[in-house]
Amino acid sequence: MPLLHVAFQEGFSADEVVVAVNGKQVFRRAGITTKTQIGYADSFDLEVPSGELRLDAQVATRKLATSKAIRVVDRLYVGISLDRAGESLTFEIADEPFGYL
């Protein structure tokens, strides 16, 4: 099965984060805080079926949520960040590991 690596990157400060794949919760953790020196807060890996998936991310402490359709074939790296104002989530999709990994 393909591997999905999800990393929480910029803008987190003692936040509770929830992630779902195709509507099923796969990750929930409180207290996520970005290490500003490296732009990394937390991450997890998950085996997923090959093909098109819906990735839902929610920052419960800020009442923010967003979704993104992604296509996973082998390994896929997804970075999730909060914008500078902490008012929206952004996704970064890569085929290679992020620099801090």
Approximate strand percentage: over 45%
In the CATH scheme, what's the topology name?
Answer: Immunoglobulin-like
- The shape is globular
Output mean pLDDT. Answer: 95
What is this structure's SSE topology?
Elements: E1 3-8, E2 15-21, E3 24-32, E4 42-47, E5 51-59, E6 64-72, E7 75-82, E8 89-94
Parallel strand pairs: 1-7
Antiparallel strand pairs: 1-4, 2-3, 2-5, 5-6, 7-8
Description:
The chain is an all-beta fold. It has one domain: Immunoglobulin-like, CATH 2.60.40. The protein is 0% helix and 59% strand. It has no helices and eight strands. The strands form two sheets. Strands 4-1-7-8 form a four-stranded mixed beta sheet, with no helix packed on it. A hairpin with a 6-residue loop joins strand 7 and strand 8. The chain is globular. The model has no long low-confidence stretch (mean pLDDT 95).
Spell out the key features of this protein.
101 residues; globular; single chain; 4-stranded antiparallel beta sheet; mainly beta; Immunoglobulin-like; 4-stranded mixed beta sheet
Describe the structure concisely.
0% of the residues lie in helices and 59% in strands. The chain is an all-beta fold.
